[in-house]
Write a structure and sequence with these properties.
It contains 8 helices and 10 strands. By secondary structure, it is an alpha/beta fold.
């Protein structure tokens, strides 16, 4: 496929984490299984909320020979209706030397917005609070997601200094991430149908994934819907973004990522949009992955400036 790249480089603010108080402290070796990848330690079904919902769990993968590696928080897609942390391709980051935390969160059938972003931020705080226990770097977190997961990764990237969605445990530590990779995530649901391609979803319908997420038809609940839009929260303090999107996507229009890029540029942030020509929703593109890994390397490398 032919690709194009749009970029804007600006400034961003990153927040370091203080020495944390451990909440829901795990025990050494908790849920440890045999590595699924060569020279990788794997922890399954770690609860990031004490006595929480069954979906409030994560899997942690750490390269054995990397000392205090940066951590990539992977957030699965599935229209907020389905999906699981075990389905994510963690290997592409493990093999690049990163630790990976693949997280589950409550689906729209479990709870409506803002439960999903509250869960993602709770997972980040738990991971930061327990970094010393597991041995990854608490100051260098990246967020990665595809589709609905891309929306959540973007929300993490723009709400680092917004405490509204920091609820529950570990609130003495930050839920900020230092870099975001967003693959074909939705942003402004209110504009999706106006820019959709043939064969796509009717997002304005009362039973659409977006309407289920916010608890009612999106066009009749515009204020609630705007709370699901990362653009609503963008400021100069947003994390750096790498966005990848196919221009033949009939589920989440490419226009959604164009809107995000423009808003980040306007705020003076660092953002790149990589367009995969002819690609639809859920594409697999080796060049996009290569660029995403290089992007994380730029902002999560031990020598990068915080």
């Amino acid at each position: 496929m032919k690709q194009t790249v749009l970029s804007a480089i600006g400034f961003f603010c990153l927040l370091t984490a203080s020495a944390p108080h451990l909440s829901a402290q795990p025990q050494v070796g908790e849920s440890l299984t045999q590595p699924t990848m060569k020279e990788t330690t794997e922890y399954r079904d770690l609860s990031y909320v004490s006595n929480g919902h069954p979906r409030q769990k994560l899997d942690l993968y750490l390269p054995l020979h990397a000392k205090h590696p940066p951590l990539i928080v992977m957030i699965h897609g599935g229209a907020f209706l389905f999906g699981d942390k075990g389905d994510e391709n963690v290997g592409k980051f493990i093999h690049a030397g990163y630790g990976v935390a693949s997280i589950n969160y409550r689906l729209s059938s479990d709870a409506i917005l803002p439960a999903q972003i509250e869960d993602c931020k709770a997972a980040v705080r738990w991971l930061r609070a327990n970094a010393d226990h597991y041995g990854y770097d608490p100051q260098r977190f990246g967020a990665y997601g595809e589709s609905a997961g891309g929306n959540m990764a973007a929300m993490l990237g723009v709400t680092g200094d917004i405490k509204t969605y920091d609820v529950g445990e570990n609130r003495s530590v930050s839920s900020r991430v230092q870099a975001v990779v967003d693959y074909f995530g939705p942003t402004d649901y209110l504009q999706m149908d106006a820019h959709g391609l043939p064969g796509g979803w009717n997002n304005d319908a009362p039973d659409s994934p977006a309407s289920r997420l916010i608890g009612g038809p999106i066009q009749e609940n515009k204020d609630k819907t705007k709370k699901a839009n990362p653009i609503t929260y963008i400021s100069p303090k947003a994390s750096p973004f790498f966005i990848a999107h196919g221009d033949a996507d009939n589920i989440v229009p490419h226009h959604q990522s164009e809107l995000l890029l423009a808003a980040l540029q306007k705020a003076g942030g660092s953002a790149t949009l990589y367009t995969v020509r002819g690609a639809g929703h859920g594409f697999q593109d080796a060049e996009a992955d290569k660029l995403a890994i290089a992007f994380f390397g730029k902002y999560l490398h031990p020598d990068s400036s915080l």
